[in-house]
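Example for tutorial group B:
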């Protein structure tokens, strides 16, 4: 399903492009990236406000982005609608504005309506604006049609952008992390959405169908093993379904599960992301080396800043002091 997609080979868009050591999170928003307890209707009575629980939670994501610089990108793929009179995705950023600026995670793109349209996230004088990327969406729609032609029996939805991202990740030794929880995340969380199947072969939707496919096509296990992907199923509809429980058990190196955060300081999704990154460094040396070099570069920069900032401050103080002495000396000369 991935190998035949010859897209993005030229003029790759900046939003879903990769460098060595790149980690990209493509995540559902409601009750996944934003836990259930963040919603006013579900917030525990012992949590006083959204800010109280959200601030330390999102700070973890923001800090990781700073640590990895441009090597950790976040894309939100949601069932919310945006454009043509809808503004549901914009409200995501209204909540972020409540947080301290340094604790707001940087969102590199939003995909609305279950994989329908991609929007760039732009900051206009502190106000977040979502602008449709028409050129990117034209390319995405080509891939969408290619996937439909395979007649897999599964609707192409949020999994579209993961398919595109995985092709580049395989070429560049990068990692894609997928996270979701609800019924509209089924294809998104189904690892069979991301392998190459003969045209007309149905993507399994039950454990029985999966076992039958694995028995008839033994190479599929290797395909799955080679995918540079980690799938995180957060507590919700999918986590309760037998098929997804089966997938977690059958492919433990690809799947993780997480509870909803209900206490201040909890961040099960983030914890799973950190673990996924660490695990991938153990299985992909090129990714690990690139990540190590980027972390070292950031550490070296911080060390230099620690050395030069005090020197700079000292020079400024001395310059001010010398200037003040010269000024006083000249002033005294002018006195009668």
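The residue assignment follows.
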């Amino acid at each position: 399903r991935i190998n035949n997609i010859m897209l993005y080979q030229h003029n790759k868009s900046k939003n879903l492009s990769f460098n060595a050591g790149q980690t990209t999170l493509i995540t559902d928003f409601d009750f996944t990236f934003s836990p259930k307890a963040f919603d006013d209707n579900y917030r525990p009575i012992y949590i006083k406000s959204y800010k109280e629980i959200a601030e330390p939670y999102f700070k973890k994501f923001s800090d990781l982005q700073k640590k990895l610089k441009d090597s950790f990108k976040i894309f939100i793929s949601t069932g919310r609608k945006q454009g043509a009179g809808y503004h549901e995705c914009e409200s995501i950023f209204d909540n972020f504005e409540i947080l301290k600026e340094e604790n707001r995670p940087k969102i590199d793109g939003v995909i609305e309506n279950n994989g329908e349209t991609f929007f760039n996230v732009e900051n206009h004088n502190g106000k977040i604006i979502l602008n449709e990327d028409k050129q990117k969406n034209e390319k995405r729609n080509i891939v969408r049609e290619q996937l439909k032609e395979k007649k897999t029996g599964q609707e192409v939805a949020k999994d579209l952008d993961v398919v595109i991202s995985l092709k580049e990740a395989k070429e560049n030794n990068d990692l894609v992390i997928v996270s979701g929880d609800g019924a509209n995340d089924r294809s998104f969380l189904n690892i069979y959405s991301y392998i190459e199947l003969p045209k007309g072969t149905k993507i399994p939707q039950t454990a029985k169908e999966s076992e039958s496919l694995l028995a008839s096509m033994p190479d599929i296990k290797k395909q799955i093993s080679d995918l540079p992907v980690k799938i995180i199923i957060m507590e919700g509809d999918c986590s309760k379904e037998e098929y997804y429980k089966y997938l977690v058990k059958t492919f433990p190196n690809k799947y993780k599960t997480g509870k909803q955060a209900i206490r201040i300081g909890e961040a099960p999704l983030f914890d799973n992301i950190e673990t996924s990154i660490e695990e991938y460094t153990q299985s992909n040396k090129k990714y690990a080396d690139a990540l190590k070099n980027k972390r070292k570069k950031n550490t070296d920069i911080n060390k230099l800043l620690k050395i030069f900032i005090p020197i700079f401050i000292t020079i400024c103080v001395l310059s001010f002091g010398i200037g003040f002495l010269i000024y006083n000396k000249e002033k005294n000369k002018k006195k009668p």
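The chain has eleven helices and ten strands. Compare this with the pattern of hydrophobic and polar residues in the output above.
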